[in-house]
Specification:
Blueprint lengths: L1 H23 L7 H23 L6 H24 L5 H8 L2 H13 L7 H22 L3 H7 L11 H24 L5 H26 L6 H26 L4 H9 L1 H12 L6 H21 L1
Length: about 300
């Protein structure tokens, strides 16, 4: 089931990417990333309440404290990622951010090693996913300025390359990779549902702090039509997190699940082409095809 969970997480998180970009792209709103954190905190808090009160999931201080470092890495990386969406296109940000799966696969294979029963074709599949995701990031980061200008013709927003804009998704990538790797280790001693609830309640607490700062201290207003995309993205984010936890709980397949889930950036690039009118080149499609080939191979091996 790890493969099915990974694919569902991929689709949900690509949807979260799209709506989060729509909700955070207003350059005039310097608090949009914190408002996005608020939205995710609300939705995750509601889901955690449902899990606790209706499904009987147990969450205690031990679970909170054990999972807190993982929660902190994830929440910090996401807040930084939301900030980056204001300054950089989704089709550039998402591939760079989600190269983290490649880092996790490498870390896992280095620390855990390669099992004797692992078919060589599985390593090839992991390599294809990692290479495709990283290649997509390089294609976007080094794109020709003329092509970039054409891609932005249909958009109301104009973005320019800068080291700060590109550094933000790189920082996200590093933090998310550390969080994912730590997650796979922590879930060996914690129940997946309890750990997920602890993460969601921690996100709720951070969302409340952001609300106090944005609404109380800075006296910012929430405009409904600007908040709808944020909460839609938050719903997709929460659903993706739910399935992601179960995909990573299968410790024997972490090196496979992590790069597959990180490949949601491929779907994000496609959504950016369809809904945000960002144009793709042949190099984009070749990178996407490489990732899809790796995912298909891993899926076949799991059947």
């Amino acid at each position: 089931m790890w493969f099915t969970f990974a694919i569902i997480a991929l689709l949900c998180w690509s949807g979260s990417d799209l709506f989060s970009k729509i909700g955070c792209q207003d350059a005039e709103d310097k608090y949009s990333h914190l408002k996005m954190v608020m939205a995710v905190g609300v939705v995750m808090g509601l889901h955690a309440a449902w899990e606790i009160f209706f499904k009987g999931v147990e969450v205690n201080a031990h679970v909170f404290l054990t999972y807190l470092p993982v929660s902190a890495l994830y929440i910090l990386s996401m807040a930084i990622g939301y900030l980056g969406l204001r300054y950089i296109e989704l089709s550039i940000s998402s591939p760079i951010c989600n190269s983290s799966g490649a880092l996790v696969a490498v870390l896992t294979l280095i620390t855990v090693g390669v099992g004797d029963d692992l078919p060589p074709v599985a390593l090839v599949a992991v390599a294809l996913v990692c290479i495709g995701v990283i290649a997509l990031g390089f294609v976007e980061a080094n794109e020709d300025e003329e092509l970039r200008a054409k891609r932005q013709e249909a958009s109301n927003h104009r973005y320019a390359k800068s080291w700060i804009a590109l550094a933000i998704p790189v920082v996200y990538c590093l933090l998310d990779a550390l969080g994912t790797f730590a997650d796979s280790r922590v879930l060996e001693v914690l129940d997946e549902e309890s750990a997920n609830c602890a993460y969601e309640l921690t996100f709720l607490a951070v969302g409340v702090l952001c609300a106090i700062w944005v609404l109380g201290v800075k006296k910012q207003k929430l405009i409904p039509k600007m908040e709808v995309p944020k909460y839609t993205g938050a719903i997709f984010e929460t659903a993706g997190q739910f399935f992601y936890i179960y995909a990573l709980a299968d410790s024997e397949h972490v090196a496979f699940a992590a790069p597959i889930i990180s490949a949601y950036c491929v779907a994000s690039v496609v959504w950016s082409r369809i809904f945000l009118k960002e144009k793709l080149s042949l190099k984009h499609y070749l990178s996407i095809a490489t990732v899809v080939a790796g995912i298909v191979i891993l899926g076949i091996l799991d059947i």
